[in-house]
Amino acid sequence: MKITMIRPIIICAILSSTTLVAADRKPNIIVIFTDDHGYADLSCQGVFDDVRTPYMDSLARGGVRMTSGYATAPQCGPSRAGLISGQYQNKFGLDANGAGREATQRFWDLDLLPERLKKAGYVTGMAGKSHLGSNDSGELTQLGFDKVYFKHSNAPGHWNMNLEGKDMAPQVQKGGGYHLELISQFACTFITRFADKPFFFYLAYRAPHVPLDATEKYLERFPGKMPERRRKALAMLSAVDDGVGNILATLRRHGIEENTLIFIIGDNGAPLKIHKLDAPGGGPGWDGSLNDPMNGEKGTLIEGGIRTPFVVYWKDTIPGGQVYNHPVIALDVAATANSLAGLAEDSDLDGVNLIPYLTHQKHGAPHEVLFWSWGGQFAIRKGKWKYLTGGERNYLFDLDTDVSETTNLLAKYPEKSAALRTELEAWSQTLYKPRIPDKLPVAGSKYFDWYLDGIRNSPVPSINTDEAPQRRKRNRR
Question: Given 3-state DSSP classes, what are the helix, strand and coil percentages for the chain, each rounded to the nearest 5?
Fold first, then answer.
């Protein structure tokens, strides 16, 4: 089988001709999903000075930066299943990575977001990391994606369209190039090829997830003293940001930026592995990203595990410069897309169409309540209140005044805690495994010990203050 070789470029200048968009055409939708990307790590978040993400920042300035944007789980697989299904993934039992073939099949049997949009006349595509049950481009078309490029490392990938926009039988892709650049280029090729049609594209960067594999081109942008894992994470995010810039340039070249809704969302918080070790190499452990000012990390329903960067941009439709404090969740992508595509409202979707709220046609919070279940941990957020439980361990936090979840208010507000617990138990009965466990697994207990109860049996390794990220003088929540 002949394999098409590709060059390591990210310039999306293929088939260039400006496309005029009919005023009544359904909007294009692009979802950019980053991987193990901590809340702090867009420079527009205003937390640290070492982050450089000018293109993603430009979308936040021209659109909306969500300060309470959530993933549906603190882990890759279930978080992606929630996004693509538009439903709490716990309803069909895809609770965690490795949930099993039956849970994956239940997910595949759903009416998924790309399938819905195809019915509404959209061309659909995806590139990057899968974690959706297959890495085969031919099989991934069964989820509703027309054009697929699975690629999450510099190992061989799998695609059914090449970087020149030519269709091919699903096949292994080999060849040179950096995976973060290649999938950005594929996205630009897709946009160019289908610029005259409504399209949906899901771009799932495996960044800054380990192994940390930034190339020298991006590492050179972050000189000076800092933990090496931090440098590599920032470099990978810089590669992602360049890709976002190329996508914006492609949309503008074809005259369709004003007709394109863009989401940027993290799949879960950064893994600190409790001690935030700056170990050599890029293997398991801290990925170099940071969750500040959130407490906790990936693998927890503490805010650092589920609150992520979350930006929404739609030029000339969503007023720019907004900082939106009401809670939103990745489930809202499917509900929003379903509505914009002109499809009937579907009670199976657990999200909300955000556009009326972001254009000020509707006021108040999009969600009365949000829920999470993962790894024996359960959580509910209602307004400013968050109730978190794991076995016999229970916590109540006021997130308006304590975003870092440092003060447990359970004893002070027992009635509020009891009411939230009742709602959480009622929601648990709608799940495939309808029960809040009586015992928290050992891994969860260690996280709760460390982040919530101050039980620290091992010392935190010191990081030279000259090498630590410098917090901005004015923090934004």
Answer: 30, 15, 55
